[in-house]
Structures are given as structure tokens and as C-alpha cells.
Amino acid sequence: MSMQALNKLVARSIIDPGVVQAFSAGRIEDVITELDFSTELCDRLSHLEAESWAEYAILAYRYVKAAEEREVRIQLPSPLEGLLPDEKRAEDEQAA
């Protein structure tokens, strides 16, 4: 979700000069809060230091990517689990 918000920010910067102007004026937080970033990510992105908009976009990408990788992903069991015979259980059944 955060990567989509970052994509929207970068795409918006191409068509809306106000985004780059806000960055240059040190007010990028005003633009970022309009997007679907979490509070923590919004705070971190608004305090990134970069000399140009391109550098900012690269740093923001790296930070968002790292933040998404840290999120705990749901670990679902394999669809094969329960379908393949459990050798230990099969041995126990034969012993009975």
C-alpha cells in the first residue's frame, strides 16, 4: 500500500509542479499527508534530507521498500499439508 502511495506522489510530481515546489520550500509534508502513508512513514518521509527532488524520490523509494519488507507477512500453510501421508502417523496406525 505504501509503495502505491509513493508511486502516486512521484506521478503527481510529473504533472503538478506544486509537489516539487513544496519539496523545495521544505513543505513536502503538506503533500505527503494527502496520500495513504502510515503516520510513522509519513513522519519519516517528511524528514528525509535530499538536495534534489530526484534524490528525494530515490531515498523515499528505498525507505518505503525497506519498511514494506519489515512488515510481517501472513504465513499460510502449504496446500499440500494434510494431503500427503504422514509417514510417522502411518507407522503408528499399522502398529495398532
The geometry reads as elongated
Give the count of helical stretches: 6
Q: Kindly estimate the percentage of residues that lie in beta strands according to DSSP.
A: under 5%
> Average pLDDT, to the nearest integer?
83
What are the segments in which pLDDT stays under 50 over at least 5 consecutive residues? none
Explain what the structure shows.
The protein is mainly alpha-helical and 96 residues long. The chain has a domain at 2-68. The protein is built from six helices and no strands. Helix 1 runs antiparallel to helix 5. The radius of gyration is 23 Å and the shape is elongated. The mean pLDDT is 83.
Notable traits:
mainly alpha; 96 residues; elongated
Task: Describe this structure in a few short sentences.
By secondary structure, this protein is mainly alpha-helical.
Topology readout:
Layout: H1 2-15, H2 17-24, H3 28-32, H4 39-46, H5 53-70, H6 87-95
Helix pairs in contact: 1-2, 1-5
